[in-house]
Records
---
Amino acid sequence: MTIDLPFIFELFAYVLRHWWAVAAGTVVGVVAGAVPGLNPSNTIIVLMPLTLAMGPDAGLMFMVTIYCAAQLGNGIPAILVKIPGTGGAAATVLDGYPMAVQGKGMQALVLSFVASILAGVVAAIATFFALPYLGQVGLLLHSVEMVVIMVLGLALIAVIAAQDTLKALIAGFIGLLLGAIGTDFVYARPRATFGLYELYDGVPLVPALIGLFAISEALSLIKRSRIVEEGAEELLEVRSGWAEVMEGVRLTLSHWWEVVRSTVVGFVVGAIPGAGASIAAFAAYQQARLFSRTPERFGKGAPEGVIAPEAANNAVTAGAMVPLLTLGVPGGLTTAVMLVALQYHGVHLGPRLFIESPLLAYGVFATMVVAYVILIFTILPMTGPIARLTMVPTQFLVPMILTFTLVGSFVSRNLMFDMALAILFGVLGYVAQHTGFPVVSMVIGLILGPLFETYLTRALRISHGDITVLFSSPIGNVLWVLVILSLVVPYVKERRARRAPAGGVPAAGA
């Protein structure tokens, strides 16, 4: 059908008639994102009876809004208390939490929110107009291309290794070994499960992330009176008004190219069935560091380190809806839950949907735009009060963190085993922090390792063990070039930076 101005007006009028579903989804999504252990998929599952009681139009808008708002809300605990409730927020911790420690928690939140909103709106609008041409994007990327995308994400371990090569590589290798726990992809034989059926599906991601980041940091906080550094309390007190909000907006807009690049990364990854926000966030972070003029600032509170992953994991939402609507193929767990709800209502996904119910099909992206506009006026005024969480004395904050994290670990699978696993990973993360082993390298290996094995095994089985299949795809070869650049460019830039001072020092008496 033709997308013209009258249709666009009709579409937004259609969405605004269901404003109550969008508003409710926004509130529920932000809360779900801010609570460790909750995510869009399990939140929608819990609210499935309510969704089914609505009509297909309101139900879909409600689920889509939860999806968008939860992705934005995930940045709150990741920045303030180092609790990434999902893999997509794990990359936000790297620079968001250091900013909070320096008393810039409010600025980090604003960067996160504005980047998320901009990326979400841009991705939704671009998808709306390009949807007829995007239906086949997910079909262009097969196992070979996915292997290279996984390698691109794993390359971040090598970039981190530039600071302490041996320790970073060891930590990454440990993460890969932990990711190999579970049943074999081909023969479904258990590996390193020690007879524990709870590990047959692999190491659960939420308890692992919560332990490595949150519990380990809670143990470290016992030594301090507050999250913020000594002397940074005054900075937070002074910079906690609307002036700081506008400064964060200006700073995000000054990195507009970072937002655009990360939005493209997030959208493309989201459009690939089986990929997700974790890959998008780490890939965007890696690219931000690669093209930065000051890569040494990353990991120490660089604004770009917050903008890139948050823009990417929010652009994933629009990308993930493309294969669901055009092919009827869910791109991830959240869209799979949506698929179940839509099938209950008798909605036929695929090309037929755009002919029979164009308002419902295109309304998904109009709903995203409306949801993000609502978030502008609801979440930005709350950044000041939210940021003051870092001022709470640790004697109260640490028990709160441990309580929420352990409950969050339990919620993901409803197993007491996961709570014990979170504590075990917490001790492991604490030891790693205090011995110089980068926890992020371990997390990258843990998240991307199983995905890399799955796609590599699939590609090799299709090619009957021929390794050259990894270089048989034009798209894959372009991605291989990006991998090589990702590994080479940081070292070239570092060598140039070392030579520059020596060549730029004027001779004595000059």
---
Amino acid sequence: MRAIKFKDKHLFYIDQTKLPSKEVWKECKSLKAGYKAIKELKVRGAPLIGVFAAYCIYIHLKRKTKYKKRFLKKFRKASKRLKSCRPTAVNLAWALGRLSKVVLINKDKSIAEIKEIILKEAKAINQEDIMLCDNMAGYGAELIKKGDRILTHCNAGFLATSGDGTALAVIYKAHKLYKNIRVYVDETRPLLQGSRLTAWELGRRGVSVTVICDNMAAILMSQGKIDKIFVGADRIAANGDTANKIGTYGLAILAKYYKIPFYIVAPFSTFDLKLVSGKSIPIEERNKDEIRKLVKKIEVVPKGVKVYNPAFDVTPSKLITAIISDKGVIKSPFKKNIKKTIG
């Protein structure tokens, strides 16, 4: 199963805000609709929003435009618009940057030719992401032993990528190898991507899964019930500092205390080597109603009380056991080995 589909030059996606109660597919017919789908987390996951955005650009530009100058301006404006909607996940900017490069190289060609080049590049990004997921799964599964009890946070599976995922791809691979693993899933407040999405995914794949509240991870670790932790990433700095869903940092601190291996799983496109450390990673702050209202309906915070809602936190590299990339497993010293492995 995949979270988006591109068929006969039409773009479709699962509305992830409807899961797990309903599996609703929608068509993205415009740039405005694509922006809204990403912004409102109907389409989410760092690698997936990059792929989706690339297709959105094509959908936006496939309508007739008579003049080249106007067409190129329309392309640049659309790219800038989409890039702004999720600032922490670098894969979005990376995918749009790839489109910008091919458009620049082919700017002297006809509008029709450039449109087809954009579509070809979007499809290439899509297919490449599937391959990257497979590579990460292979490297990561080697770190899992039979009977391991694994904790994961947020969602890093086929709902977040074009393939089987990042962290969850590793779990799916281990499951196929009959390693008899069991998975604990943090609910991942405030939007419950763990309990709503990851548990739904794992259940469909037949993986043994147990959902816990975010504040239950510590007691499980203290009881010796967690052997390893695998999570995804939205941006990784040159020194290995990693931005991921809010709550990841706390898990890393607990893992260090209880001497539990803590793994990040991410493709090369998630690395931002221009950033020296995680201190420079922009952290998206989302709508306060995500905390004020439970599932957008029941008010759980008194009116007038302030709310702080950062969507991500940054885990320092010193708390990370290894980063599993599509190019191999990267260990400390991260600055040296990331440069050596990723480039």
---
Amino acid sequence: MLEIPKLLHEHATLPPGLPVIILIGGLLSGVFAWLSAWFLMRWFKSTEVTALRPFGIYCLLAGGAALAWHLLG
């Protein structure tokens, strides 16, 4: 969003068709970000805590390994 004014200001120096591609890319990325957030919220709501259990175990193991490496290394 912060770069849009720069793109509009430099519109004359951009290759033809690039502003349209930038606009379509921005719109599609926004739509797919919304869809993925919607899907993940529904999935986590339906599976509750069991969906995050593997990630929690990974965090504990990775944290323990990092702590051991720090203390022993």
